[in-house]
Amino acid sequence: MQRGKASFYAHKFSGKKTASGERLHHDSLTCAHRTLPFGTLLRVKNPANGREVVVRVNDRGPFVRGRIIDLSRAAAKKLGIIDKGVALVEVSQIHSEPPKSAPFKLEDEQPELPDLELVITSSIYDDWLERMKLRNAIPSEELKANRLESKNP
Asked: How far, in Å, CA of 76 to CA of 64, rounded?
């Protein structure tokens, strides 16, 4: 467990990229820590009022002497430290490493896909072809013949 001062991000940093590449959201439960891996879950307790919050490390810092953690505004609000700006907290690690792989399904758990048969009816194609001929988008045989004749006098 670590004891030290915690601060929180100002609103102006909301939407900015963190060191992990994520965007900072003032309503998320995240934090900055100098050394713990990204994704580490931390329990942060405010001993002055007994409130606790669980946050996830997604940034680096704080870079102010004497501070051990920077919290998102939502986390600071849950701890009741918004009015103070900086407060003494206790930080303990819950989960030390982010998951190494995404969840997946085993091959035998894959659902069976139905056999599908694609049937193209000629009437749809014929209707389309006739409309294109009417628009002169696809030249009719008669137009093709006329063009050939005009090119070869």
From this structure: 17
